[in-house]
Amino acid sequence: MNLRDAIDDAGLSRHANFLERLAKPSIRLIASRVAESETLPVGASRTDGVPDLPEGTTWACRSDGETRPAGWDARSDRSSPASSLPFLAQINFAEVAALNVPDSNLPLDGLLLVWVDTDTGACQLRYTTVEGIRLRPTTFPDDLPEENRYPAHRLVPQTEITLPYYGVHGTIGGGIGDRYNMPSFFDSLDPGSVPGMLTDEEAGRYKQLRSNIAIPAIRRGMPESDSHRLLGHADIIQNPMILDCEVNGSDFPYDFTTLCDVKDPLTQRLIARARDSEWTLLLQIDSVSGADGMMWGDGGTHYWWIKRADLLRRDFSAVRYDLQTG
Q1: pLDDT one-digit tens code per residue, 205-224
Q2: 37-68 burial string, b = 16+ CB within 10 Å, else e?
Q3: Which domains does the chain have, with CATH numbers?
C-alpha cells in the first residue's frame, strides 16, 4: 500500500497533500540477537557487543571529547570509575547505501561508531572511512564493568516511510493552560503546519496511520518499541527535539515554557531559525524489549541530530545527542 492509500484508508484524505509533504524516508534497522556461538562479519552493522576498529585507534574513553545531552545536569551524574565508555552501535554505511534511499545524503561507505554511558550522559560518536584501512575485531576493555558489556545484536537495514509526531510539547504539556496544550507538528518545521489542525478524532487516526505505514516485519510481530533508525522522523517519547537542537550551544533564550506554546513569537522565531539550519535525525537507537534486549532508563531512546550541511561535509563534530525516557 502506498502512502496516499494509507492516508485515505485512515480517513485523513482532507489532509493528504499536507501529510505527503511531511513524509520522510527512513532506514529502519532491524535488530536480532547474535548467538554466543556466532561471530558477526568484520564491519557488519550491530548494536552492543564490541566494535571493529581501524588499526591504530582505540576504544572510546571519557576523556576523548565526549558530549552530553542538552540540558544535562552534571550534579545528577552517577559516574562509573571506568574510563572506557560502553559501546552502543556500529553502522556500516555501505550496507545502507545498497538500499538506494533517495536524497539520504549519507556516506556511501565507512563506519559510524557510537559509545554512550546512560548513567552519566557521556557520549562519543566517530565516523571513519574504511578504504585502504584494516579493521580489527576488539574485545571488551578490562575496566569496563560487566553490566556495561551488552550482548551483540545484528542490524539489518530496511526502508520505511515516516511521519512526524503530532501532539503537545511533552515537557509540560497537559498541565498549565490551553496555550501550552495546543497540539502541533512540532518537529515538521513545515510552514503549512497549523497548531490544532487535526480534530481529536483525526489525531487518533493519525497516530494509527503512523503505525500502519511501518514496514511489514514490524507490523507482523516485532515490538513497536524496537525502533532503531537512520534518518526520517524521530519516535518521540517526551518533547520534540529539533527546537532543542537549535538552542543548545547558542545564545538563544532557552525557556521550556515558551517552547511549549507553539504560537509564542519566540517559538515561531526559533522554528524559522531551526528550519534554516536543516536539522536532520541522524541516528536513533531504542531500548530493545525482551530478555535479550537492553533497556535505557525507563524504556528510553538515544537520538543524534545533525545539520544537513554538516552531513554533506561528513563533519560529525557538531552532532547533538539526546536521551529520552518514558
Answers
A1: 999 999 889 876 454 445 44
A2: eeebeebbbbbbbbbbbbeeeebbbbeeebbb
A3: 3-324 (2.30.320.10)
